[in-house]
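hey can u run this one w/ pyridoxal-5'-phosphate bound, need the structure tokens asap thx
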Amino acid sequence: MAFQREDVFHTSSSGGTAGANALVPACNSKQAAGVFLLPGQDTLIFRSFPPANYIEAGHHPVLPDSLERSPIMSKIPYKTFLSESELPKQFYNVRADMKVKPAPMLNPATLKPAVVEDLTPVFCTELAKQELDDTTRYIDIPDEIRDFYKMYRPSPLVRAYFLEKALDTPAKIYYKFEGNNTSGSHKLNSAIAQAYYAKEQGIRHLTTETGAGQWGTALSMACGYFGLDLTVYMVKCSAMQKPYRKAVIETYGARVIPSPSDTTNVGRKMLEEFPGSTGSLGTAISEAVEVATSTENCRYALGSVLNQVLLHQSIIGLEAKQAMEKLDEYPDIVIGCAGGGSNLGGIMAAFMQDRLAGRKHPHFIAVEPASCPSLTRGRFAYDFCDTGKVTPLAKMYTLGSGFMPSPNHAGGLRYHGMSPIISQLYHDGLIDEARAVEQTSVFDAAELFAKVEGTLPAPESSHAIRVAIDEALKCKETGEAKTILFNLTGTGYFDMAAYAAYNDGTMTDQIPTDADLEKGFAFIPKLPGIQE
Ligand SMILES: Cc1ncc(COP(=O)(O)O)c(C=O)c1O
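ok here u go:
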């Protein structure tokens, strides 16, 4: 008998294996609440997928056996750590191996491909070079950056035994855990690199935007470390949802300004037109770029989308591949959530190299929110990276730079565009799939993951968890033991407003209509001779 979402269980000391707590159905009513009880423990609520080991075994489900008793544990540990000396010494630039390169960025004034000099007013010179470098396959990681990485890298590769067991799947699920630093996410990998190159050039101030707050925190940590001054434009709804993010960023010495703000022309214009605006990443970027380009000895840093950011994030996949090689494993499926595309680009790059060389054929899946579906419903076109149209034009999947996503709870995935690298790979079928998922089902996955794997995941990361679970459940149906790798980009400790909304049942799913999307598409520029 398969139990439904609404089945109720009570505990029994007689059911299940010896010594294990057991759960039995309290009643068979499909109308009852979806509650599972353990003796002397908290109530467990599995809204959509009660773990299979709790509900099988003749209605006398049991807690997981000790992993120590599992024969496979002797071969593959729960966590695999590389040593510090195995920390990669070079970033991998996937563009070097792409037969079709991402379309060049365009200078919006001339509509000609951007050259380093076009970018240096915004980015420091080394980063401008990295941005435009489509040919150098490996780029040395400076010792100062590697030293900083040692504070939190190499990050662990985890075999999600508890999740596998809960799902009762033959799939082998691995995740790379990038949340083990104060910023709580992978963003620190690029933040420290960007701050380092700025410091090397003698830049004293940086500006940036932040959505979910992880990037702002990461860059404040990096700037605090190198003694750089930092101003963070934080999307207003995130600033309201996450006041403690602001406190952390300020502790590292940066200044936080909710966006749109009255400190820039772009912000003032936005406030005049939309006084109640809760902001967007696109607007916050415009504000930060405006300040960077109008302030002496100041540059702008971006936490995603750009080629340079994907380059720095390649460290995730390089480490993951090295760790999997030690275990004699290789992923059949690689999954990443996709906001601007940096963590997906990072976890994927080393495996994509194998695919581009024809050595292996892993299946790549990008996961985005249904409320901001740039890959699944966007257009592949040149567009501005920001709302104020002050940035160069990038060819990418986009919903239009004026698209305002609903204020969903995955702030880091509310961006109108997508990395040009990810966009090109997806367009060419090298990223096999993009899936849009709804936030309540994402939080179902987050809740289960938190319960069985312990870590409270960030809402953004939980998009990847959702699809990893879906793939593992497919394996359960087909009996295939596929190896699934996903990127657990961060932790959700500052996302308690989101978890609270989920827990009290007020979370909703907002999916834009075609008419809503058309409004955004109207912002995509017409470029004579390039796109009509
Ligand atoms: C925890 C976390 N994961 C994922 C993302 C998405 O960004 P990207 O697509 O650049 O990896 C963010 C962005 O803020 C984030 O904070």
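The radius of gyration is 23 Å. anyway lmk if its weird
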